[in-house]
Amino acid sequence: MSSFYSPNSIQSFIPPQRTLMGPGPSDISPQVLQALSRPTIGHLDPLFIGMMDELKQLLKYAFQTENEFTIAVSAPGSAGMETCFVNLIEPGEKVVVCRNGVFGERMRENVVRCGGEAIIVDDEWGAPVSVEKVEQALKANPDAVAVAFVHAETSTGALSDAEAISQVARQYDALSIVDAVTSLGGVPLLVDEWQLDAVYSGSQKCLSCVPGLSPVTLSKKAVDKIQKRETPVQSWFLDQSLVLGYWSGEGKRSYHHTAPVNSLYALHESLVALKNEGLEQAWARHQSMHNKLKVGLEKLGFSFVVSEGSRLPQLNAIYIPEGTDEAKVRGDLLEQYNLEIGAGLGSLAGKAWRIGLMGYGARNENVSLCLRALEEVMN
Amino acid sequence: MSSFYSPNSIQSFIPPQRTLMGPGPSDISPQVLQALSRPTIGHLDPLFIGMMDELKQLLKYAFQTENEFTIAVSAPGSAGMETCFVNLIEPGEKVVVCRNGVFGERMRENVVRCGGEAIIVDDEWGAPVSVEKVEQALKANPDAVAVAFVHAETSTGALSDAEAISQVARQYDALSIVDAVTSLGGVPLLVDEWQLDAVYSGSQKCLSCVPGLSPVTLSKKAVDKIQKRETPVQSWFLDQSLVLGYWSGEGKRSYHHTAPVNSLYALHESLVALKNEGLEQAWARHQSMHNKLKVGLEKLGFSFVVSEGSRLPQLNAIYIPEGTDEAKVRGDLLEQYNLEIGAGLGSLAGKAWRIGLMGYGARNENVSLCLRALEEVMN
Predict the structure, then answer these.
(1) Distance of residue A56 Cα from the nearest chain B Cα, in angstroms
(2) What is the pLDDT of residue B252?
(3) Average per-residue pLDDT for chain A
(4) Are B272 and A12 within 8 A, CB to CB?
(5) What 3 state SS string does chain A have?
């Protein structure tokens, strides 16, 4: 064996206790962190399989769906996005992709990498997706198989009308593919009532679980399309016809990959907390914390990127006053207050900050700290 | 909002304390579990980025490499496998795939899904990969761009000669793609000395970290091949030209996906433990625990699937005596002793058990418990 440099100086990493008010990961409750570190058991252990069955029930409640296909992909939200596209889209198929921020563009990239053709519907960053433009795009492309859009754009804080977009898609016999990474648990998302077909989310936003998992739910229509594919799914890891055998409650579980056991404990715990609080109460809490933050920010002279009607309570993008050294302000908040807020992303980089009020992070004390610290640092 | 069934009866999940002696996940030390539940900080926090730089150093030590491209993929080992194939293989390219167990077959599936052509080298389950057969396959297919093989087959417990296979591959100007999921940290794996090109592993085997991460290292030659691709990588999530921007130590980090922050704390801690013990000491511990287990199992009348010369110390596949109700024995061990051993996989299902001695699980007390419990349950 060659004598390789042994990194002797490296010790255990002890992170500080931050208050996380960026675009995610969000603050995590002590209960969820405790669940995370419970003893690891085997991923085929009968007790673990029972836990996964409960997790499916809890996810169905969070998504408000009875979809049999409701699972957590063993990877972050961007893998949840890719799961929906690689399974649903076959080479040559057209997809209407709505782009009003970073994640709409990422959807386009996914469509193209699947060999699909993306029909772009562009809206301004900060504006919601225009339902009319979607209808025009479908009228011009009646052979489109799906409409893909972001319910809650994490890069801008804009909320789009998922129910209306999905309704238009259905009129043209197209499936809806919905990015609910930032919406799930923070604002109403009614998968069955709105008849959404493929919806993915992330663990680290309004569910306040550790990052690394992506809840996904597929309607019967979406599952049917997967089962009728003529070409194989290009990804083995994300092929849901294989994964379903692992998550299925009936009969013998077939081994697909090793589930991220401890992260799933944490997701289970965060969903139990959501169920105990109640979905509607959680949505109301996000709204009420947003109202307090909004009043305080406006008093400090800040203005919002998104106009009031389509503003997300859980992701507040505000313009940075001219002449501000924005990186220094964020650095001061982090170093002097252990408070993280988010930088702007994409076309809002350097122009806006993003203040998250997500899940366990949407608490009165967080809002007060944020307002006071911003006031102190900016003066 | 429709009034959906709220799963009121579901409470926090409290797993028991098991002794994990299956094929993984392996026993996790209290230190690693503690690291896992440290406060979550942002994935772009300067302190987190510093932690990731240390993680790269620690992974380089574990892999015995100076490869600049040494990271942890934010998903389980099967995604690490897919990462290597989707980045390295372009449609139409030939890959020699060695198949002597479940994971060689999975490699073949990956090649096909990338549009590549798999040239199969079959060896019996339980036997190591035949270097001669690899050479014959390369002689017959001198245009093959890579040779893919499993260093330590988790489904059988066979160790193949990675150094010799890689040497043959080089003679034919083919890259080596190596599954080191079960070997990393358990037996010698010298990435640079053996000139391996693309090596992936898993967090939940001999590193004794939680499942859900896949360490990957790529040689300069492998990175060159990726940079010269003519077709885009079919996966956005696993496209390493995008991921590298996030893991790169130089300049500004670009956002790709949200890293699984807490799981990376745990991987860091498990690698610090490996570094503190020393790689060679860890290998010797696995060997010595295997020796004790072997003597005990043979006294109980068990015989090994793999012959002595290519037997992995960390994964012991033993034949189940005829007439044994194998599921009942595993069930009794789990329920009465909180001890997990693994079932057979693929063609060994129902015929063999797999006893893992991996990482923190390779301890004297575990071996004693396993031998005594097996003796009691079998009588």
Answers:
(1) 10
(2) 61
(3) 95
(4) yes
(5) CCCCCCCCCCCCCCCCCCEEECCCCCCCCHHHHHHHCCCCCCCCCHHHHHHHHHHHHHHHHHHCCCCCEEEEECCCHHHHHHHHHHHHCCCCCEEEEEECCHHHHHHHHHHHHCCCEEEEEECCCCCCCCHHHHHHHHHHCCCCCEEEEECEECCCCEECCHHHHHHHHHHCCCEEEEECCCCCCCCCCCCCCCCCCEEECCCCCCCCCCCCCEEEEECHHHHHHHHCCCCCCCCCCCCHHHHHHHHCCCCCCCCCCCCCHHHHHHHHHHHHHHHHHCHHHHHHHHHHHHHHHHHHHHHCCCCECCCHHHECCCEEEEECCCCCCHHHHHHHHHHHHCEEEEECCHHHCCCEEEEECCHHHCCHHHHHHHHHHHHHHHC
Residue B204 with chain A: CB contacts under 8 Å? 258
CB contact, 8 Å: B77 with chain A? yes
**Whether A13 contacts chain B with CB within 8 A:** yes
At A166, which CATH number?
3.40.640.10
Residue A6's pLDDT is what? 77
Q: What pLDDT is attached to residue B241?
A: 86
Task: Report, as ranges of residue numbers, the positions in chain B whose pLDDT lies below 70.
Answer: 1-5, 249-253
Same domain, B258 and B338: no
Lowest mean pLDDT among A150-159, A243-252, B57-66: A243-252
pLDDT digits (tens, 9 = 90+) for B332-358: 999 999 999 999 999 999 999 999 999
- Do B81 and B118 fall into the same domain? yes
Domain-terminating residue out of B248, B274, B300: B274
Query: Do the Cβ atoms of A31 and B12 come within 8 Å?
Result: yes
Render pLDDT for A171-212 as a digit per residue (tens, 0 to 9).
Answer: 999 999 999 999 999 999 999 999 999 999 999 999 999 999
The answer to whether residues A108 and A213 belong to one domain is yes
Same domain for A262 and A308? Answer: no
Q: Give domain status of residue B374, yes or no.
A: yes
For residues A202 and A327, state if they share a domain.
no
**Partner-chain contact B64 A1, CB within 8 Å:** yes
Same domain, A264 and A330: no
Is a pLDDT exceeding 60 seen at residue A11?
yes
Q: Is A321 on the interface with B (CB under 8 A)?
A: no
Question: For residue A12, is it within any domain?
Answer: no
**B20-to-A44, A219, B318, B339 alpha-carbon distances in Å:** 12, 37, 17, 6
Contact A268, A208 (CB under 8 A): no
Q: What would the two tokens of residue B11 be? A: 């409470």
The pLDDT of residue A252 = 61
> Which pLDDT score, from 0 to 100, does residue B296 have?
98
> Could you tell me the CATH number of the domain that includes residue A361?
3.90.1150.10
Structural domain boundaries, residue B63: 30-274
Residues A64 and A156 in one domain: yes
pLDDT of residue B4: 62
How many separate domains does chain A show?
A: 2
B261 at interface of A, judged by CB pairs closer than 8 A? yes
Of B15, B106, B237, the CB nearest to A79: B237
Q: Residue B219 domain-assigned?
A: yes
- Complex-level ipTM: 0.96
pLDDT at B162: 98
Indicate whether A249 pLDDT > 90: no
Q: Looking at beta carbons, which residues of chain B come within 8 Å of A27?
A: 40
Residue ending a domain, choose from B274, B290, B320: B274
- Which residues 171-230 of chain A have a CB within 8 Å of chain B? 188, 190, 192-193, 202, 204, 210-212
Residue A7 lies in a domain: no
Cβ-Cβ pairs closer than 8 A, A with B, add up to 301
Asked if A253 reaches chain B (Cβ–Cβ under 8 Å), the answer is no
**Co-location of B289 and B244 in the same domain:** no
On chain A, the residues whose CB falls within 8 A of the CB of B80 are none
